[in-house]
Amino acid sequence: MNREIILQKTSEHVKSLLAGEGSGHDWWHVYRVWQNARRIAQGENADSFVIELAALLHDIADWKFSGDDEAGPREARKWLESLGADETVIRHVCDIIRDVSFKGAGVKIPMKTKEGMIVQDADRLDAIGAIGIARTFAYGGSKGREMYNPAVKPEHHDSFESYKKNSGPTINHFYEKLLLLKSLMNTETARQLAGERHQFMEEFLTRFYSEWNGKG
Ligand code: NI
Q1: CA 153–ligand 1 middle distance (angstroms)
Q2: I need a surface site. Which of 3, 66, 190, 214 has the fewest CB within 10 A?
Q3: Which is nearest to 122 in space by CA: 91, 142, 100?
Q4: What is the pLDDT confidence band of residue 164, given thresholds at 50, 70 and 90?
Q5: What is the number of structural domains in the chain?
Q6: Averaged confidence pLDDT in the chain
Q7: Whole-prediction pTM value?
């Protein structure tokens, strides 16, 4: 099977698995990460086939829903083997999927390859800016969280466990994760895009507090 067909079949497969999922990790998240990754890859000397496959498969069994770190790589391997993909490609894609999830502000997972760095940047870009704001409130709503509560201060999560257990208001998530992402980008292209998205979030927060307090 050639690369074009493997990519096409993989996108159809992931679309059918994640269609209609409402908490921000749906097919359209994957689609946006895929497009971000292609854009970033244009300026880099890296294997675009591995990048696109990893972007398409990176949330195939997200830990937030499955509770198992190995579920994603396992599902991805099963799928790619069924298409007859090369073992080196499968191993690289699975390594990226394993490392790409953000595990809280205090826990840094360095990506081992350029391809991994690009997929991580692409995923992080989708967590900030206008899309990031929309996803954050959609996810908070799905967990029954308040949008904002002035009495509850943001927390810094030093471990994956405390990050997973976090149940604070959605606005706190901006300080616990979203506003930290700009400085974590691996590539120059992603850094530029992140800068614009970051500024938009700052403006959003300024307006949010202003409207909250009846100042318009
Ligand atoms: Ni993702």
Answers
A1: 26
A2: 214
A3: 100
A4: low
A5: 1
A6: 89
A7: 0.87
Of the ranges 61-65, 154-158, 188-192, which is most confident? 188-192
Residue list, CB under 5 A from ion ligand 1: 59, 123
CA of 126 to the centre of ligand 1 (A): 8
84 C-alpha vs ligand 1 centroid, how far in Å? 25
Phi, psi of 33 (to 5 degrees): -65, -40
Range of the structural domain that residue 90 is part of: 3-212
Alpha helices of the chain — where are they, by DSSP H? 3-18, 27-42, 48-57, 63-66, 71-82, 87-100, 114-125, 129-142, 160-165, 170-176, 188-212
Report the CATH number at residue 59.
1.10.3210.50
**Ligand 1 centroid to 23 CA: how many Å?**
12
Distance 195 CA to ligand 1 centre (A): 20
Regarding predicted confidence, which is higher, 209 or 65? 209
CA distances from 200 to 54, 74, 130, 206 (A): 28, 37, 7, 10
Compute, in angstroms, the gap from residue 210 CA to the centroid of ligand 1.
31
Compute, in angstroms, the gap from residue 25 CA to the centroid of ligand 1: 6
Q: How far is the CA of 3 from the centre of ligand 1 (A)?
A: 23
Both tokens assigned to 10: 């993989």
